[in-house]
Every structure is written in C-alpha cells, then in structure tokens.
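# step 3/5: fold
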Amino acid sequence: MRLVTSSLLFAVVSILLVISVAGEPRVPKVPAIYVFGDSTADVGNNNYLPGKNAKANFPHYGIDFPESRPTGRFSNGYNGIDFLAIHMGFRRSPPPYLSLTNKTSHQILKGLRGVSFASGGSGILDSTGPTTIIMSKQIEYFATLRSEILTRLDAAKASFLFSKSIFFISSGGNDVFALFSQNQTLNTTGIQLFVNTLVSKYENHVKNLYNMGARKFAITNVAPIGCLPVSRRSSPTGECIDAMNAVSKGVNDAIAALFSKLSSELQGLKYSIGSSYDLILSLVASPNTVGLEEVKNACCGGGKFNAETGCTPNSTYCSNRNRFVFWDAVHPTQATSKLVGFVFYNGSPQFAAPINYKQLVEGGY
C-alpha cells in the first residue's frame, strides 16, 4: 500500500498546481471529446427528459459549482469528466447533447469541442435505465451529430478530426446494481452469463463508434459498487459488500480483455482504462494520505450512512465537503473527482492502463 498512497499524495499536490492555473488561457489538445455513459458523466442531459427520476437539477447539487448552480451533474460541483476535460485543454466537459441549439452548436458542427451524450441511470445493456438515454440511443445521437458534421466538412477532414478526438465511456455500474436488485441469489454460472452478455453488448457499442470514426477510447471502469454508501446501508456490519465488488471486478477484467482484443483486431484503435475500481478502493483503505477523512457516509442525504434518502433541497449536507469521498449515496464529491481527473490523466498503470489518458491524448492534431 505504500506505493499506492505515496503516488496518490503526489497526485493531490499536483492537482493543486493544476487547479491554480485553471484560469489561464487553454489550448485544446484534441479536437473534441465525445462522452457516453451514466450519471458519473452526465452533465445535464437528464434535465431534458420527462419525469423526476435520475435528475440532479436542484439543490444541493451544484453547491460548489460556479454560482452554486445545480446543472444536472450528480455532484456538489464538477464531476470527473470536467476535470479530465480541463487536463485536455478545455474549460470543462462538453455540453449535453439535448441542450444544443443553433447558437450553441456552431463549433460543435465543425467537429470541435464535442458533446456529452451521457445519461444518469443508463447502462451498457438496453434493459438498464430504460427511462433514461440508453447507451444504444446515445450512439444513435452521435450518428445524427456525425451526419450533421459531414454536411459541413468534407469526409477526409471529418475523419481526421474524429480519429484525433477522445471518445469517453463511463458505464457499467448501473448494470451491476440492476443485477443485484433483480436477483436475490446469484451463482457463479449466472454471474458469468451476465458478464458475458454485458461485454458482448459493450463490444457492439465500441465497434459501432469505431465504424463511425472513433479511434481513441478513454474508459472508466466500474467502481467497487459494494463500497458505495447505498450498498453499505444494506450491510449488517456497514462494511463493503464483497459479492458486489467481486462482480464489479469480474466486469472490469472482462472489459480489459475486450479492449486488448479489439486493439489487435481494429486498425488504429487505442485505449486507456482508468480504474475507478482500484482508485476508490485505495481511498477507502487510506483516505488520510490524500487529505480525505470520511469514506462511509455520504455528505448529502439522510438515514443510515446518509444513504437511505436522496440528496434533496430538504436534506442536510456536510460543511467539510473536501473531506468526503462521496457526495450522495452513489456519486463522488468534487474533491474525489479532482483526484480521479489527475490520476487517470497522469497516473501510473495501476490507475490507468495500458497507457494513461495523457499518453492517449499526446500527438496533437
């Protein structure tokens, strides 16, 4: 653990240096970022969906965002995608697809800046999050955008821009949650069938994007679901639920094997997998080494571990948000997301493999 914690401590110091110059002019290092996934990446798409489920467009969400605005991010401030975008030279995450207007999409339709298609509650499988924007639909939206870009750029230039852009995917956690919510007893055969089905669908998604020009994939794997406050509340001891973590790890191992295979099959495909799993486990084990303290309780919510009721305008929330790993029952605080952004972008193979995000980005355009 010594090597892990020392590298994380270095990361925190470096983050402070990065954030201190955040106001300086930025030059994007890639043409665009196209974001796909769930609430870990959603920056407001769900605001435009009917109903009240899977939304974060009300207080106390966004309390630490500029002007304390709830934007639809499932965070007290920025999320991990925002910090990764900052490292890539952008102001923050690209805008949500459903927010685009003729006025806001001028640069985007030139193949620049990018778009977020991510939707809280969605998963890799079409059966996960059916009332949100499922992954298949997110990719359909990208296909629509791509067609619009191709009406403004010649095919060669558009192909070049897509090949140099980053295609970010952060998904799979909701699929694991759904598996456990639908099955009271799980055996090895059932779990393996689930993993195989999930990864087969994941492969289809990646190949669809590849066939539309994607070449650089930045992946965030599944967090240790059993250590989230929402899971701990169901644990008699209040500790992590090992069975849930084991499934998360099984999914992650299969995703790593999938991308290794695809990189040898699909010409020009490059990838980096940021390990949310290993990073969160290291924070849970040794939070103090990176300036955090609370790893079990959510900052905002109510009940056991602050995870029995959601983070709502009537909820209580902690004042020392920079000391909490989790903002609500499921999602990280802005402080944790800063760490995610730095470690995935600059980190060692333990947290970003086979190369880190910076190495994926390098090369310019």
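# step 4/5: annotate
The radius of gyration is 19 Å.
# step 5/5: archive (pending)
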